[in-house]
Amino acid sequence: EALLDLYQRPYNPLEPVLCMDESLKELQIATYFPLQTRPGRPARFDYLYKPVGASSLLLCVEPLRGWRYVQVRDHRKFEDWAYFMRQVLTDFYPHATTIHLVVDNLNIHSPAAFYHTFPADEAKRLVDRLTFHYTPVHGSWLNMAEIEFGVLKRQCLSQRFPSRPLLGSAVQAWFEARNAFAPKIN
């Protein structure tokens, strides 16, 4: 109910509500090999998809403004999350006094990640700008970032990507186009 009350607040650019979540995307390359055919028949090929790693996708969305940002990273560690959130705070919300951040209960989604990654004075400066709102255990579906991930998966991630740079380019094109349209989440 606390999250539902938070979502009902009117839009305030000085106290935006951001929903943040992460997901993994497996990277795969296609390996083609010829199939035996009879004489006079066209050549045929089969294929296999070989996994070549995975990338972590970090996504935040501001539902009332219709803005989102996604970053592709190699890992899902304290440092990755802290650097992502620092970029969001400094580049996209420099004038916000308090950011209400909706996250699930993953261990990296905490003030400790900032102190683990940055010097104490910088970590404190970042943490002081955030108010954490955690989804209930087994209730991560209350995080509106899950809705945005669903759209991202349907519109962009349904194809296979052989490398992190290609995945990153596709994701960036997706969120830039989506931000231009600025659909809000009700």
Q: Radius of gyration in whole Å, from Cα?
A: 20 Å
Rounded to the nearest angstrom, the distance between the terminal CA atoms is 16 Å
- What's the average pLDDT? 91
The biggest beta sheet, please?
5 strands, mixed
| Total strands | 5
Taken in chain order, the helices and strands follow as HEEEHEHHEHH
- The geometry reads as elongated
Oligomer: single chain
Q: Major sheet: order of its strands?
A: 3-2-1-4-5
The proportion of strand residues reads 25-35%
Contiguous uncertain segments of 5+ residues? none
Structural class: alpha/beta
The number of distinct helices, counting runs of at least 4 residues, comes to 6
* Helix residue percentage: 25-40%
Description:
- A hairpin with an 8-residue loop joins strand 1 and strand 2 (44-62).
- The protein is elongated.
- The protein is an alpha/beta fold and 186 residues long.
- It has 6 helices and 5 strands.
- The longest helix is centred in the last third of the chain and has 18 residues, at 164-181.
